[in-house]
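If your schedule permits, I should be very grateful for your opinion on a structural question. I have a record of one protein: its chain in single-letter code and its fold written as discrete structure tokens. Would you kindly read the sequence against the tokens and tell me how you understand this chain to fold? Thank you for your consideration; the sequence and its tokens are set out here.


***
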Amino acid sequence: MKIINSIIICAMLLCFTTGAHAIRIKDIASFEGVRDNQLVGYGLVVGLNGTGDSDQTRIQIQSVVNMLERMGVTTSVNDIKVKNVAAVMVTATLPPFAKQGNRLDVLVSSLGDAKSIAGGTLIMTPLKGADNQVYAVAQGSVLTNSFAFGGQGATAQKNHPTAGRVASGALVERELPNALTGKSVLHLNLDTSDFTTASRIVTAINGKFNATVATSRDSGSVTLTIPESYNDRTVEFIAALESLEVKPDVQAKVVLNERTGTIVMGENVRISTVAVTHGNLSLVIKETPQVSQPAPFSKTGKTVVVPRTDLKVEEENRRLMVMQEGASIGDVVRALNLLGVTPRDLISILQAVKAAGALQAELSII
């Protein structure tokens, strides 16, 4: 358990050590309108070795009929029984400024009851955006890095065989409008809203261009006015400012995950004066019935069952630890570690300290 505590302490130290360094603006903010767009489509994976959807699904059968009719082959739903075809949903992410002919990775996921789509081929599938327009077309061999085999008595499976990826399997067919064309004012949105960080970004940008180029509207965005010297050179202006470094400020927060016993504390976490003790009361009750019977060849007496109860009470002897006001995260960890607490015990202690009003940080439980 000491090893686990040491690992957690190392993770905490790494978390707040990196916060002391300046970070590029491009790593903590993005420009309004410059964003990814999600694409989705419905398709068929063919060429499976009997691991496709069953006849009960019926989705893939109707899709096969529709596909054959588009190719000039007339058939009926009742005439088709296939186990080598699987109905799938295909998803992809269209990055900003993607051009026609660029390739995208796509994720293929089984929609029916197929056992595996490993080794199959995705048939040409249009990918649409939220506006129902086709932006890319996907096709290619599906890679799952898994397998699933079995019979009536046993099965063997590795990884997840009903979802796979087609590397560079989609071609961009439609381009998104350029969100920066003809604009004299840009908006920079922070990944994490914070007034101090926004103010530091404004100061860094105005100092770079020696003019009032940036102003802050709120804690989550910064308004940029493109200088006259950068007219028709928006890309150069953005490149000049996104490489500037600032030191972001973050809210004091403690994140707890009770399922895994993970605890992450920020650099600015502080506590008020508080005394902490933690111990467990263990009560063990054991029933051991004993049989009492008369001596051999005895003419009197009878056999009876005599109950016997063993009772044991143990209470851990834990010391009372006092943590002074203004203690840092390092002081908190060291003090609690001296109590010999486990990660799950530490979660309970931090919740109690927060309930007592002594934890000067936001407590987030995930």
